Known about the structure:
alpha/beta; 4-stranded parallel beta sheet; 45% helix; 8% strand
Amino acid sequence: MVSQxxxxxxxxxxxxxxSALEDGVDTVVVAVGAIEQHGPHxxxxxxxxxxxxxxxxxxxxxxxxxxxxxIRPGCSGxxxxxxxxxxVPAETLMDLIRxxxxxxxxxxxxxxVLVPTHGGNFAPVNTVAPEIARDVDANVVALADLHEYxxxxxxxxxxxxxxxxxxxxHAGAIETAMxxxxxxxxxxxxxxxxxxxxEISTARLLSEGFEAITESGVLGDPREATRDAGDAILDxxxxxxxxxxxxxxDAV
Length: 252
């Protein structure tokens, strides 16, 4: 099914949404992003910008879905040493996700797909999704496996013949590539610099903060990024997530 309606829910009038529901557009994709530091070469909005793009691509791939406004900010306490970062408590984020899902359920959407695009949001999404699913009629689909997400990102790099990998993804080749594909004007090419590479303790990142690991806020080497790689990464995630959503919808 190819929807005749705008992909972005916020671009529709209420009558558009009413008509879309009547026509079988029954799914909404909700990205859960963040406003936090991503090194000197990327804007604070990286995770939210990726969330916007991924939600729209996934909605378009499904054909009968809307992309809701991305939730921002997120749980970014481990980045607070870097100015500009905005963080909210996990319970606040979960309350907002509950409100999104309840609102969309009230209007009659049958499926709500939660897509975190910031590492600190995966645990809250996984915690709250089962609770929401018990509270609403809609089928709540949480695409919230952080290891799968980073694996898909690295597979996208390989798809574009970039011989480089990132065990932990933050502001390096992968996210820089994704921003180049979405809007290359958001990447300051004059400020690209290699960050900390190799295996990183995520437990230490979360407990001690990013500044304990990297002074620049960068993991990996953003100089390895290409626009083609960014498109390949987004394509890889979109295809995998679309399959997951279709399977979850068929199972209901």
